[in-house]
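Why do we care about 3D structure at all? Because function follows from shape, and shape follows, mostly, from sequence. That is the central idea of this module. The next example makes it concrete: a single protein chain, its amino acid sequence, and then its structure expressed as tokens.
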Amino acid sequence: MTDYPFQKILVANRGEIACRVIRAVHAMGLTAVAVHHAIEANARHVREADEAVVLTGDTPVAAHLDIDQLIAAAQATGAQAVHPGYGFLSENPAFARAVDQAGLVFIGPDEATIRLMGDKISSRNFAAEKGVPVAPSVLPTDNVDAFVAEVEKIGFPVLIKASAGGGGKGMNIVREAGELRDAAKIAASEAERYFGDGRVYAELYVERPRHIEVQVLGDGTGEVIHLFERECSIQRRFQKIIEEAPSSNLSPEKADEICNAAVRLAQAAKYRNAGTVEFILGEDGRFFFLEMNTRLQVEHPVTEDITGIDLVKAQIDISAGRGLPCRQAEMSKTGHSIECRICAENAERNFMPETGRIDFLNIPRAPWLRFEHGLDQGRAVTSDFDPMLAKLVAHGPTREEAIDRAIAALEDLAILGVTTNIDYLIRVLESAAFRGAALHTGFIEEHAESLAPPPLAASEKDRLLVAAALGFREFRQMVFDVPELQASIGYWRN
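And the structure:
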């Protein structure tokens, strides 16, 4: 038994993040409980947990979003705390409230903080009140003409965004007034469909911005530290695919300015647990508050690599009342880390999600490499969940060496049976623009032509066609199997 106020933690998630949390829970001498839908009864996170509870629902996602079932699972197994991971209910204030009302510990901020920071409009207003730079914006009203007039005052282009949104949903870039009405309607409809909240707003769109985010930890009393910044500018459809820490081509003075702004915001909110404050940075050096994610981020491993701090352990320690892992003056960073999101998608078809079965899995291993995943050979990759399969994270003494190590690891990584973006990630990392840190959120679109796969030589096409043909059993039988009549003759030859 440890001296924590809780001994058993229910991990209200699945896949690679559930495996990651379970690993930290075990390292701390605590017990982990997994949850799963019936289709994942033998999933890796289920096998690695000490106990598991099956969830039911019309769909696997619906099962993971059922608050009552999750609370019942915790109570039935005797879990005293709940870790939400990311996605699903991790930023749902009703879930945090339900966990608290059940007498359990929610490993994250409280309901009020999640509600404040989870709404983009209220969080922007809060940030502006606390002196954190916010881009000029306009809230829509019932008077469409008045809304258009106000937007024209801040100038075009603008970005229409969902107040309750995330993951690129409910977002549209508008470059002229004539597009505004339709864009706002489309964004509101999409926001209502994905988040059950159709509120949108217009914000000045910064051309060729960089996406910089700051990892913070708070103890709930106003004591907050930052763990430096991350560069998250390589995105497709407003969703990140490559992240790194620290940010590249950012002066120490500008990095400090951005990190200190994040700390001021978290201190003002008396933030508790791990959170991430996100900013957009213009080419002119101006930066604006984007949003705050009140949970662990997908890209948290790059921060762990350069700081040596286990963020999941820090989350659990803070929730247990043990305070922050260190003071700001004690923080330091070592080397550079790059994370690549491995997704089941076809980069040549506008990153459309793919399905299939993992027929073969080879994971590279090295002291400087992390491969965060919940994969198994033979596992079906379906459309039930997000297409991200895993994360490959490479650390090096310099950014250049981290890039080289990431490329080498991606070349050794094999996931056969389903189309992935592995080759595409290699092309991004190898590109002169990426190596030169000429980064912005439109990087993928700007370099689309150079990032396309090179044309195949005729001889290479022939080899691939032969390999594909040999993969069909009927073809192999037709070419290589001896016909029954001749086989019956045996070894006798004419």
